[in-house]
Specification:
The chain is built from 32 helices and 35 strands. It is α+β, with helices and mostly antiparallel strands and about 950 residues long. A hairpin with a 4-residue loop joins β25 and β26. The relative contact order is 0.03.
């Protein structure tokens, strides 16, 4: 015991002024704790409940005589007591077991109340003879089932199991050891152990330690030891459920299979207990007649608290504290200090090893453990024990900021310790990019190629990402360890870094192309996007070959029928690689031409055609010969290109092509590209497609920007923008082409737009120069199709001062003759219609004023002689009454014609309400006035009718006359 270190990890609470309240009158015989209360039983039969700080709450009379044992249940607020009551008869024992429900209070007098006693049991019966009770224990099984064990001085244990409150119980008896001397067979202590569904009971006598298995009947007994104890220094641990026995020489632990470890503490053990992993022990020293209360930390082999006390009567734990009740009713309340206070105490004594063991044994969080290790490491570092300090710092990885340790070991003399720390950091996968950089720099500073190889080339390094791959590659490149950098990049699958080293550091373009060819298509595509600019610059043909294989590989497979549709859709598009040709447009044109020749139905053909059009129509596309010759071109005094005469005067210079010849080649190349562009515009817009396989707006913009007239005319004509076509000819002052265009596009019979001739005439009228020949030809087509009235023609051409009257004299003469003839025909028609109208009005007046004489002698229907009754119609038809239908009021002969007239009139009235139809006819007609006149002539416009409200409104007049 004297070899153990002593510390004050506990402290006395309430300033040492705790004591049993005066309300507890008798001597304390038993105690129990639980549910935030301490329950005290006295020799006068009273039970008192104490709150925190041992303050009296309330008390009640549980037994008439002494309370021997009591236990507070945990799951339900029940109190089980054992005590003496009045003896009712000589046959019945006075020893009773009572169960109180502390949640139910019943009045007792006027000023006090007591809990309800739900059950009273006589412990001793005829089958269970009376003996002295030496120990008592209650186990809460599944509520409301209780298991009660009562130990006697004769070596027997009485058991009661069941629902005590409802007296649904079963009694049983266990025999531990029968000895003639009762002092050697008394049950000194018991302990329940629950292992899953199995329940076991430890029983301790002065001469034995036994274990009963209560799983099945008959209950079996196993003797664990032939030595017991003579006092009630028996307790159970909380988690491992081991039995503790205190003897004079040591404290023994027992498990189900026998005696376990023992701890040698000299002195008589009066009380044993277990509190949060600590062993509580009250030891009596008969030489000094003093009691010592010790708290042992068995894991760390230290005494957490030691205190000399008076004679202890009871020991229990509640409220997170340890309560000792003395024989004189004084009390001690001892609580554990917080972890920070305990560690500060150890740090002041530089007991870092003890502190580490302490936090680990009490299962402190990893951060608290790391903090203790850090302080220990700082202590060793201050003593210049760098190796030992680093060993502690390594244990803090994951909790301590690595920069804290790294800063301490940046000195060159401690680079080995720093390397060790960084290696451990990488092994645990907690290293950042900076840590990887620092470790690799340490290797390069030490020139330790072997360790560098181990770090870089170990099998599990990259697979488990023990270091940042990108950082490792960057550092190895900076230190000229290109082989290591390439190894890391290749094994990690960082193809972009592998190619970066090949291309930028080593200049191995052919090897880079071979490496790209060996990759999977998806990876090869990504790498080409990243480094295609460099490859195009140095190896354009080989790069284009790789791109063609990437973009068209499935086309060949599809022809063989071995390519899936899914794979085809995942194939990269040439559009994805446009950025690598940013400084090499000719190579881009070559690549796209090869692709379009091989793949006819690419999903990205619109974008591809757009790009090709831009390349074909561009005026400043770099020409290979020009880019090579610009170096040798002379400059003028202002630093610009030489003038045209100077170029012409120098046909050759030093055996190279002259500037003039280069310009000719450039122009020839430009014209070839323009022809390709025009061919693309036509082939990418088949006649069976409504929209082309390129962006029309973009194509128009490109043609306008690069002044490509042929392409622009084709697009406008294809889009039926005939006015824009003529505008192009007008802008170019191409009169012959303009008239030819109008002949082709101005014929309405072939889907053309006749209004083009009007635009052409207006153009010549505003031209301001002599164009008599063209105007005469235009007037021929205007006259043929009757496109414009003569007055408009005169007004239009009058704006050109260069035109004479002779240009339109013949046209005007012919138009006047035609108009005169039309006027004469209209006058004859008017006279005819007037005569017919007068005759009709005269006939109507005659019908209204004069009598009508019917002279027909035969029936019009049956042609027999007409006799009465007969019906005569105003149309001069007569019928037998029998020849007509019932209620027939119309002439059968004239009715169909009359209905046809009425239907036509009704149709005209309906059409007069359709405004959209009227305006469409006016808009689409050559002569809108004739349409309006036709509507007036049919009588469906400008007539008025009287509405139901007496007002006049536009509409049709209906005739009320009949036959």
């Amino acid at each position: 015991m004297y070899q153990w270190r002593k510390f004050e990890f506990f402290e006395e609470k309430f300033a040492g002024k705790c004591s049993i309240p005066e309300d507890v009158a008798g001597d304390v015989t038993c105690c129990s704790s639980g549910r935030g209360k301490i329950i005290v039983g006295c020799d006068n039969g009273a039970v008192s409940l104490l709150d925190r700080g041992l303050k009296f709450n309330y008390g009640f009379q549980a037994h008439s005589s002494s309370v021997l044992f009591l236990q507070q249940l945990k799951q339900r607020n029940y109190l089980v007591t054992v005590g003496e009551d009045e003896q009712i008869s000589p046959q019945l024992s006075s020893m009773c077991l009572k169960v109180f429900d502390l949640d139910k209070m019943q009045p007792e007098g006027s000023s006090t109340s007591s809990p309800e006693c739900v059950q009273i049991l006589r412990i001793f019966t005829n089958q269970y003879p009376e003996a002295k009770i030496t120990s008592f224990l209650v186990l809460e099984e599944a509520p409301p089932i209780l298991l009660i064990a009562i130990g006697l001085d004769n070596g027997s244990i009485y058991g009661i199991k069941g629902d005590i409150a409802r007296e649904r119980i079963k009694r049983f008896k266990l025999e531990v050891y029968s000895h003639t001397d009762k002092s050697q067979s008394s049950i000194m202590g018991m302990g329940f152990r629950v292992d899953g569904q199995a329940t076991q009971l430890f029983a301790v006598t002065p001469t034995s330690v036994s274990l009963f298995s209560l799983q099945t009947e008959p209950y079996s007994r196993n003797t664990l030891d032939q030595i017991g104890c003579n006092s009630n220094a028996v307790a159970m641990t909380d988690r491992s459920q081991e039995l503790m026995i205190g003897r004079d020489e040591a404290v023994y632990f027992y498990e189900v299979d026998g005696r376990g470890p023992c701890w040698a503490f000299e002195g008589e053990k009066k009380f044993l207990g277990w509190f949060r992993g600590y062993l509580l022990c009250v030891i009596a020293d008969h030489r000094s007649n003093k009691n010592t209360f010790n708290i042992y930390d068995l894991k760390n082999r230290l005494i957490a608290h030691s205190l000399v006390t008076k004679e202890v009567s009871q020991m229990l734990c509640e409220w997170g504290n340890i309560i000792l009740i003395m024989a004189d009713k004084s009390a001690l309340c001892i609580g554990e200090k917080d972890m920070e206070s305990k560690l500060d105490m150890l740090f002041k004594k530089n007991l870092y090893t003890v502190a580490i063991n302490l936090v680990q044994s009490q299962q402190a969080d990893a951060a608290a453990t790391a903090e203790v290790l850090r302080k220990y490491g700082d202590h060793l570092y201050s003593k210049q024990e760098y190796d030992e300090a680093m060993a502690q710092y390594i244990n803090t990885i994951g909790h301590l900021e690595p920069s804290y340790v790294i800063q301490k070991f940046l000195d060159a003399q401690r680079i080995y310790n720093l390397t060790n720390y960084l290696e451990k950091l990488h092994e645990k996968g907690l290293a950042s990019k900076d840590h990887t950089t620092l470790l690799l720099n340490c290797y390069t500073k030490l020139k330790d190629v072997e360790k560098l190889n181990v770090f870089i080339k170990r099998e599990d390094g990259i697979g488990e990402h023990k270091f940042d791959v990108e950082t490792a590659i960057r550092v190895c490149r900076a230190a000229n360890y290109h082989e290591h950098a390439m190894y890391v990049a290749k094994k990690a699958g960082r193809h972009e870094w592998y190619l970066k080293i090949l291309l930028e550091d080593l200049g191995s373009y052919e090897e880079a192309l071979q490496y790209i060819s060996s990759l999977e298509p998806s990876q090869a595509g990504v790498t080409v996007k990243e480094y295609g600019k460099i490859l195009i610059e140095h190896k354009p043909d080989d790069t284009i070959e790789i791109l063609m294989r990437l973009c068209t590989e499935d086309a060949e497979l599809a022809k063989r029928g071995s390519s899936s549709g899914l794979y085809t859709s995942m194939l990269p598009s040439p559009v994805d690689f446009l950025n690598i040709f940013i400084h090499h447009p000719e190579a881009l044109m070559n690549f796209l031409e090869q692709y379009t020749n091989k793949v006819k139905d690419s999903p990205a053909q619109v974008e591809i055609h757009n790009t090709l059009l831009e390349l074909y129509l561009s005026n400043d596309l770099d020409f290979p010969l020009i880019s090579q010759a610009n170096i040798d071109e002379p400059t003028n005094s202002r630093g610009g290109r030489p003038s045209a005469p100077a170029v012409m005067s120098r046909p050759k210079t030093n055996g190279k092509l002259s500037v003039y010849q280069k310009d000719l080649n450039r122009e020839k190349y430009h014209q070839e590209r323009l022809q390709k562009g025009l061919r693309l515009l036509k082939t990418a817009w088949p006649s069976d497609l409504e929209h082309p396989l390129y962006d029309v707006d973009l194509a128009i913009i490109l043609c306008e920007m690069n002044e490509f007239k042929e392409g622009l005319l084709y697009l406008y004509e294809k889009m039926k923008l005939f006015k824009e076509v003529t505008a192009c000819y007008m802008q170019a002052h191409d009169h012959e082409g303009l008239i030819a265009c109008c002949k082709r596009l101005g014929d309405s019979g072939k889907g053309g737009d006749p209004s083009l001739w009007a635009d052409v005439l207006k153009y010549f009228g505003e031209l301001g120069e002599d164009c008599s020949k063209e105007v005469k030809e235009v007037l021929t087509y205007i006259e043929r199709d009757d496109i414009l009235p003569p007055i408009i023609v005169l007004q239009t051409l009058s704006n050109n001062p260069c035109l004479t009257l002779s240009v339109i004299k013949d046209y005007i003469a012919r138009k006047l003759e035609q108009e005169s003839k039309l006027i004469e025909d209209d006058r004859k028609a008017i006279d005819k219609y007037q005569e017919e109208t007068l005759a009709m009005r005269k006939e109507i007046q005659d019908l209204r004023t004069n009598a009508r004489i019917f002279q027909l002698s035969k029936c019009t229907a049956c042609t027999f002689t007409l006799d009465l009754p007969a019906v005569h119609f105003m149309c001069m038809h007569s019928f037998h009454l029998r020849c007509l239908g019932d209620n027939e009021k119309e002439c059968p002969e004239c009715a169909p014609e009359y209905r046809s007239v009425l239907e036509t009139k009704r149709s005209l009235e309906q059409n007069s309400k359709d405004q959209d139809q009227f305006f469409n006819k006016v808009k689409n007609s050559k002569d809108g006035f004739s349409v309006i006149a036709e509507y007036f002539g049919k009588g469906i416009i400008s007539k008025t009718r009287i509405r139901g409200n007496g007002t006049l409104g536009a509409g049709n007049l209906s005739s009320s006359s009949g036959f």
